[in-house]
Design a protein that fits this description.
Layout (H helix, E strand, L loop, with lengths): L5 E2 L13 H6 L7 H4 L4 E2 L8 H4 L1 H12 L4 E5 L8 E7 L2 E9 L2 E6 L14 E2 L3 E2 L6 E2 L5 E3 L21 E4 L2 E4 L8 H11 L9 E10 L3 H6 L7 H4 L13 E4 L3 E6 L14 H8 L16 H17 L2 H4 L2 H5 L1 E6 L3 E3 L6 E8 L2 E13 L12 E2 L7 H27 L13 H15 L6
Parallel strand pairs: 13-20
Antiparallel strand pairs: 1-2, 3-12, 4-5, 4-7, 5-6, 8-9, 9-10, 11-12, 13-19, 14-15, 15-16, 17-18, 18-19
Helix pairs in contact: 4-13
The structure holds FE2/S2 (inorganic) cluster and fe (ii) ion.
Length: 455
């Protein structure tokens, strides 16, 4: 049996020198919400993550059977299918599902397969009045009830009263639609409980999907995902932001099905061994060139000044909410993960990531980045998911954020190649900074191998 996860005492555990995240919060100019004051450090046993989790088709096949066919997973936003008849195709590994707005306020999901000879019912997202198979014309109502089939006299063996599409469980949270391929799935409310409790403060249903891009990545889905689950890599991978990011001062909290890494912004990394001025920090934070003038924070601490700037730029769209948010909520990186692959950021960070296997190719994956945004008045149309070319840079669509992604992406195929070449059988993860990666593997071990990690 694998060892259990243990609670750590935040006051006595081993951690980075420099300010803790909680000490930074003490400097906030606004009341800090309880959700940021909460700490949940865990000692996840020294799980020896086997390299074969990334390199073998056999492990991928196990993930499909024991994880993807069983787990609650983010399929789309409710706003992707706003009108009755709107449907979206959600694919995971080699599986495909159809998520349909069956009637006002009702979303249903079905395996994307005709019950006649199995053709995929819909290959494209769209709006329809029925679900009719393009091969021979079998048809179902939007709610999955059988509708008709051509030349019914030739199918006396089909009991059309029992020929509805099989339904799979659907749930919604904060404007996101989740499905579970397992018709006997455990309740969603329990699964999402910890994440939902945290996001009471930040209602993502009030935001709209401003952009949604996807790209095929030349690596296992976990390599892509784990590149976004710790800030420990910032010093080597993103050295240009080190002067304004408290990378290893991140606070890492682990719960049952979710974990978070809060990485403070507008504060220098403890790995920098020289004294930085406020100007240095702001120059880095604002991505200014060496000859560009740096704004004077007018006696304010840089974090408070940046937070105020951010409030003013969001005020038109978000209204008075910006005044309720503390400085930390305006500037820090509140990176949450719901097992296995859903990553919404808290407050106004706006980012949502999702990572999936690319079909059944265990050496490639799909990375998506969604930006959510506040809006005034009528809800704007949700952006459709657009594909980047396989070698297209994220910076072509996401500017500064995209340039940071491109540095992460640069590593990914090299991590895959290194894992294929290594003589080592396992990875070695740090205890605190990489606790989210540890937790992901602990959970994966529970789901796929029936134990936390692989001992
Ligand atoms: S496979 Fe769908 S109608 Fe024949
Ligand atoms: Fe990164």
């Amino acid at each position: 049996m694998a060892e259990a996860i243990q609670d750590l005492n935040p006051d006595t555990m081993t951690r980075s020198p420099g300010l803790t995240y909680q000490q930074l919060l003490d400097q906030d100019t606004r009341p800090v919400p309880a959700v940021l004051r909460e700490q949940s450090p865990k000692l996840i046993p020294d799980v020896a993550v086997p390299v074969e989790r990334y390199t073998t088709k056999a492990y991928h096949d196990l993930e499909v059977e024991r994880l993807w066919k069983k787990v609650w997973q983010f399929a789309c936003r409710e706003e992707d299918i706003p009108e009755v008849g709107d449907h979206i195709r959600y694919d995971i590994a080699g599986l495909s599902f159809l998520v349909v707005r069956a009637e006002k306020g009702v979303i249903k999901a079905f395996p994307n397969a005709c019950l006649h000879r199995g053709r995929m019912l819909k290959e494209f997202d769209g709006r329809a009045t029925e679900l009719r198979c393009p091969f021979h014309g079998f048809a179902w109502e939007l709610d999955g009830c059988f509708k008709d089939l051509p030349a019914q006299w030739d199918f006396p063996h089909i009991n059309t009263k029992k020929f509805d599409l099989p339904e799979i469980p659907v749930a919604t949270w904060a404007g996101f639609v989740f499905i579970n391929p397992d018709q006997n799935a455990a309740p969603f409310d329990d699964f999402i409980a910890d994440l939902a409790r945290h996001f009471k403060r930040w209602d993502l249903s009030k935001l709209y999907k401003m952009t949604h891009y996807a790209r095929v990545m030349p690596c296992n889905w976990k390599i892509a995902q784990e590149a976004f689950c710790e800030a420990y890599h910032v010093n080597a991978t993103h050295p240009q932001i080190l002067e304004s990011l408290g990378d290893i001062n991140s606070q890492v909290d682990v719960y049952e099905n979710c974990a978070r890494v809060i990485t403070p912004s507008v504060t220098p990394s403890p790995l920098i061994d020289r004294q930085l001025s406020d100007e240095d920090v702001l120059r880095s934070m604002m991505d200014l060139g060496v000859n560009e003038p740096v704004p004077n924070p007018q006696g304010k601490m840089p974090r408070a000044w940046m937070a105020q700037n951010s409030r003013e730029s969001l005020r038109a769209a978000a209204g008075s909410l910006v005044d309720e948010y503390c400085d930390a909520e305006m500037v820090d990186n509140l990176d949450y993960t719901l097992f296995p692959n859903f990553h919404p950021w808290g407050a106004f960070n706006r980012v949502v990531y999702r990572f999936r296997p690319n079909g059944n190719d265990h050496r490639s994956s799909i990375m998506e980045c969604i930006l959510l945004a506040p809006f005034e008045g009528e809800r704007p149309h949700a952006a459709k998911m657009l594909w980047l070319e396989p070698d297209q840079k994220w910076s072509t669509v996401y500017g500064f954020l995209g340039r940071v992604f491109d540095q992460d992406v640069f590593n990914m195929p090299k991590v895959q190649a290194g894992l294929e070449a290594t003589y080592s059988k396992t990875l070695y993860l740090s205890r605190y900074n990489e606790a989210k990666v540890r937790w992901l593997h602990f959970k994966l071990g529970e789901w796929v191998e029936g134990q936390g990690g692989s001992q």
